[in-house]
């Protein structure tokens, strides 16, 4: 299997940083380029209608700006890390449910490999609390996916 296009799903957390390092190492050794994907999850905006009657529009705008800025920061930091290793990166930001947006990007982009950070969920409580995005993505795709812990 030749690897030319890698999709890296990142959000800047500890597991994602490990996945970033793995993707850069793999891209460097194969000559592939990386599309780094950050999904802005609008979940927080759902509460605006219920919680804030006064200043609701300002709150929504603030949440939008904050989530967008956080995504840009994560993508920029990764791009700098990859460029220092002479790996080509195309940053991409999508909006919506992370599961749906990752699966759609996988379908749209025709990637050879997808790299996602994954937490080890050892107890029932941890599995209950976690959204467990990597497992959900894995169950719904036929593409090659690497989970990095």
Taken in chain order, the helices and strands follow as EHEHHEHEHHE
Radius of gyration: 16 Å
Q: How many domains comprise the coordinates?
A: 1
- How many distinct helices? 6
Side by side, the strands of the main sheet go: 3-2-1-4-5
Structural class designation = alpha/beta
User: What's the level 1 CATH class?
Assistant: Alpha Beta
Q: How far is it from the N-terminal to the C-terminal residue, by CA?
A: 23 Å
Beta-strand percent range: 15-25%
Shape: globular
The beta-strand count equals 5
Q: Are there runs of 5+ residues with pLDDT below 50, and where?
A: 126-130
Largest beta sheet, briefly?
5 strands, parallel
Named at the architecture level, the CATH assignment is 3-Layer(aba) Sandwich
At the fourth CATH level, what is the homologous superfamily? HUPs
Oligomeric state, counting identical vs distinct chains: single chain
CATH topology: Rossmann fold
Tell me, rounded to a whole number, the average pLDDT. Answer: 85
User: Into which percent range does the helicity of residues fall?
Assistant: 40-55%
């Amino acid at each position: 299997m030749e690897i030319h296009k890698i999709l890296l799903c990142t959000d800047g957390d500890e597991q994602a940083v490990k996945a970033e390092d793995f993707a850069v190492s793999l891209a460097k050794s194969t000559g592939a380029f990386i599309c780094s994907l950050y999904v802005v999850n609008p979940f927080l905006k759902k509460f605006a209608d219920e919680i804030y009657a006064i200043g609701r529009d300002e709150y929504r705008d603030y949440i939008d700006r904050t989530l967008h800025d956080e995504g840009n920061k994560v993508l920029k930091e990764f791009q700098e890390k990859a460029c220092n290793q002479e790996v080509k990166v195309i940053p991409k930001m999508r909006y919506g449910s992370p599961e749906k947006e990752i699966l759609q990007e996988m379908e749209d982009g025709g990637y050879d490999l997808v790299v996602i950070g994954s937490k080890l969920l050892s107890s029932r409580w941890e599995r209950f609390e976690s959204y467990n995005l990597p497992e959900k993505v894995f169950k719904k795709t036929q593409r090659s996916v690497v989970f990095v812990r």
